[in-house]
Design brief:
The protein is α+β, with helices and mostly antiparallel strands. Helices cover 54% and strands 12% of the residues. It has helices spanning 6-30, 79-109, 117-133, 138-198, 205-221, 254-262, 270-298, 339-344, 384-388, 414-420, 438-478, 482-516, and strands at residues 40-46, 68-75, 225-229, 232-237, 240-244, 247-248, 300-305, 315-317, 320-322, 333-338, 366-368, 380-382, 399-400, 407-408, 427-428, 435-436. The strands form six sheets. Strands 3-4-5-6 form a four-stranded antiparallel β-sheet, covered by helices on one side. A four-stranded antiparallel β-sheet has the order 10-7-15-16. The longest helix has 61 residues, at 138-198.
Length: 522
């Protein structure tokens, strides 16, 4: 049998439950724009009815309900969508960095333009062509010198920009590793707090939201997998543990992440994109520019020396040493020389004769600024002898007489013409052995960069669309809808008002029972 105050207790339960529902609705509304917030709901259920099955059960028919109660306040969240979002977010992080790096590389290459390497090369070859028209002109020689300096300066500057970009990426890896370490520490702390709270029987909804938001942010930095355990989230990057219960991994830095990349544990995220950008993209284009510079200076080229050309004393070509009268070619001679430097050393300058009375042969045109090292885009420079004296530029292949009365044939432009035609000559790449013109080598590099940048942009756009799609699906489940919350608020408000009215009604019944019955005969 129910007690006299059974309905008062039923009304009280309803008031408490609807109040909790209203408070939760208000909490949802307040956090409608909070990053990472998951909407919450009160799990209501009918309380245990009367009477329970047993030997002392009364004969009153039916089970009388005892009202409503709530046993939890839960988040509405779908783990599958979380996992899918983090996977796509990892891809987006990697491709975004790669796309940004390739965009920067395109800005460094600056092609096609009127100020890029190709234009400087064209000006360099043109200056040789102009010198061939007036080989004794100091002005024309000075223009060759200045265009050569412009070419080396452009290569030096581009190499420095590539080096700076590589250093920036390394710095960014270190910065991101510090950010990752901070997130890992936070997850371990939240694991401990959540475990303590939920050990008392409550759901730590807001703390769980904070933890999930941090995992989402980590997924943009590195690839992660999450396992929910009794001690909270275990977070792994491939086979590398980042968080195990209450214990975070320490010592996360650039070397740690580089090792993870090498072991294939690091497979995505912004740091993955940075390492690929630095060690593949920037390193590749730096190597290609170094090869371009060295090939221009020292790559094998085939040239035809015209009949009547006089080679400098002691010149060795095709295994033959030219000395004395054999220096004068009796017919056209096709030879292979070591790039622009090798060709320049076959000609004669307008400097004074050497100690033996011979005309001075050309010196290596390009040298390494580090005195004898391998020529690269970063150290290529014009020979200081030419910088100091434009007359050290060789333009002629003809002399008359023999030492010590040997004289330069004035106005001979044979070497200057050969130099200007190098624009069309195939060079043998110093590093790969491939044959092409210098322009073709450079064009191939620019074409490769354009295709890689286009692909990275496409992948970034695809990843952005996928992340947006999954996030939309996730928000449809976990996000706060103000229209829905307003509807719930009205529903819970009416339920509360009805419960209060029910309590008032039963209070009136009890008042009638207690104060207005059994008074006959008083």
């Amino acid at each position: 049998m129910p007690s006299t105050f059974h309905s008062i207790e039923t009304a009280k339960r309803s008031l408490f439950t609807q109040t909790a529902a209203l408070n939760t609705t208000g909490h949802n509304i307040a956090n409608a724009n909070t990053e990472g917030y998951t909407r919450q709901t009160v799990k209501m259920r009918a309380s245990i009815p009367m009477e329970a099955y047993g030997i002392n059960r009364s004969n009153v028919p039916g089970q009388l309900g005892t009202g409503v109660e709530f046993d939890a306040i839960e988040r509405i969240r779908e783990k599958f969508l979380d996992s899918q979002y983090r996977g796509e977010n990892t891809e987006l992080g990697s491709w975004t960095i790669r796309s940004n790096t390739l965009d920067k590389l395109q800005q460094i290459m600056n092609e096609p333009s009127d100020t890029g390497i190709r234009k400087v090369l064209d000006n360099f070859y043109k200056s040789w062509s102009d010198l061939s028209k007036d080989p004794e002109s100091v002005t024309a020689r000075t223009i060759v010198k200045e265009n050569a300096l412009a070419l080396t300066d452009a290569m030096n500057h581009m190499s420095k920009q590539l080096s700076n970009l590589s250093a920036d990426l390394t710095s960014n890896v270190e910065a991101k590793s510090s950010e990752l370490q901070s997130y890992v520490n936070s997850i371990a702390d939240l694991n401990q707090s959540i475990t303590k709270i939920e050990g008392l029987g409550d759901n730590a909804n807001d703390l769980r939201d904070q933890r999930d938001l941090i995992v989402d942010k980590i997924s943009k930095i590195v690839n992660v997998t999450v396992t929910d355990t009794d001690q909270g989230y275990n977070v792994n990057m491939g086979g590398q543990a980042l968080v195990t219960g209450f214990a975070p991994t320490t010592g996360i830095n650039g070397a740690f992440l580089q090792a993870a990349f090498a072991s294939n544990d690091l497979q995505g995220g912004e740091i993955h994109g940075m390492i690929i950008s630095r060690d593949q993209f920037v390193a590749d284009y730096t190597a290609q520019m170094d090869n371009l510079a060295n090939t221009l200076a020292n790559g094998d080229i085939s040239v035809t020396l015209p009949k009547g050309s006089v080679l400098p004393e002691g010149t060795v070509l095709n295994g033959v040493t030219y000395t004395g009268t054999s220096r004068t070619l009796q017919s056209d001679l096709t030879v292979t020389v070591k790039g622009l430097n090798g060709l320049h050393q076959l000609g004669y300058t307008q400097e004074d004769k050497d100690a033996n009375g011979n005309m001075v042969a050309g010196k290596p045109f390009f040298v390494a600024s580090d005195n004898g090292g391998t020529i690269t885009a970063g150290n290529i420079t014009l020979n200081t002898a030419i910088v100091d004296n434009p007359n050290a530029i060789a333009a002629s292949l003809r002399v008359t007489g023999t030492a010590p009365t040997e004289e330069l044939v004035k106005g001979n432009n044979t070497l200057a013409s050969l130099m200007s035609n190098l624009k069309l000559n195939n060079f043998t790449s110093v590093s790969t052995g491939n044959k092409a013109t210098i322009d073709s080598f450079f064009s191939s590099m620019i074409g490769q960069l354009g295709i890689e940048a286009q692909e990275a942009t496409r992948q970034t756009q695809n990843s952005t669309a996928l992340v947006s799609q999954v996030e939309t699906m996730r928000q449809s489940v976990s996000g706060v809808s103000l229209d829905e919350e307003m509807s719930n608020m009205i529903k819970f408000q009416h339920a509360y008002s009805a419960a209060a009215r029910f309590m008032t009604t039963f209070d009136q019944l009890l008042d009638k029972l207690i104060n207005s019955t059994g008074v006959v005969g008083r």
